[in-house]
Amino acid sequence: RFSRMVNREKVILMTHMAQYAEREGTRDAEINQYFRSDYLSFQIVKSVICSTILYFLIIGFFVMVRFESFWQDLFGGGFGGGGILLLVGWLILTAIYSWAAYVVYSHKYKQMRRRIRAYCDSLEKLEELYERKL
């Protein structure tokens, strides 16, 4: 009876471990290669690049919508502080994107560490079950 209970527990444990390895395991292993600070820095740099591209797309769309008045302002000297305004807009957008990336990827890293810790605990428990039987 004890042997059946141990075997059942081993099967359940191994099933859960296999499901984890199949679903999140490979993704978690990729993230776990990095220290937390390196992972977050890399993700923030990617978000700065993406926010810059997005900002240029927004500005490009704005220029296309107001094409005629844009050229008149550009050559007529109507821009004045426009360059500073564009820079401030980019800084605000980049700061928001960077903060959001930090929050999201920090949570993602924390969840990954929790799942890997649970997986390692399951490995230890499985090892104990095998040792009990021997």
User: Which series of helices and strands comes N to C?
Assistant: HHHH
Strand content: under 5%
Low-confidence stretches: none
Structural class: mainly alpha
Major beta sheet, specifics?
none
DSSP summary: helix tally: 4
Please tally the β strands and state the result: 0
CA-CA gap between termini: 16 Å
- The helix fraction, in percent, is over 70%
Mean pLDDT: 85
Rg from alpha-carbon coordinates:
26 Å
Task: Sum up the overall morphology in one term.
Answer: rod-shaped
Task: State the main characteristics.
rod-shaped
Structure description:
There is one protein chain. Helices cover 92% and strands 0% of the residues. With 134 residues, the chain is mostly helical. The longest helix has 52 residues, at 82-133. The protein starts with a helix and ends with a helix.
Short description:
The protein is mainly alpha-helical.
List strands and helices in order, with pairings.
Elements: H1 2-32, H2 36-65, H3 67-76, H4 82-133
Helix pairs in contact: 1-4, 2-4
